[in-house]
Amino acid sequence: MYIIAIAWLYVALLAAISDTTVVGGVLTFIFLGLLPMSLFLWLFGTPARRRKLREKDDGIDAGADQNTSDRNQ
Q: Radius of gyration over alpha carbons of the chain, in Å?
């Protein structure tokens, strides 16, 4: 996934460098490089974020279950 982001930012950087004005180059890099890549990484990172949150919640629940079983003994 990161290789796609790196390649896209490289292409966007080259497009920005070849622009005729500095302002145009900056805007090209922002609107054709940074914004699409931030959206791409956020969308494709969603499963990993959900997995991490689920593991965190499972760890908290497992710890609560162990504490309850310790009190019963």
A: 22
Overall pTM > 0.70: no
Predicted confidence pLDDT, tens digits, the chain (73 residues): 789 989 999 999 999 999 999 999 999 999 999 999 999 999 988 898 899 888 888 877 665 555 555 555 5
| CA pair distance 73, 7, nearest whole angstrom | 59
User: H/E element holding 72?
Assistant: helix 46-72
Report how far residue 54's alpha carbon sits from residue 66's, in angstroms, rounded to the nearest whole number. Answer: 18
Token pair belonging to 17:
């460098």
d(CA 45, CA 34): 16
3-class secondary-structure state, position 56: helix
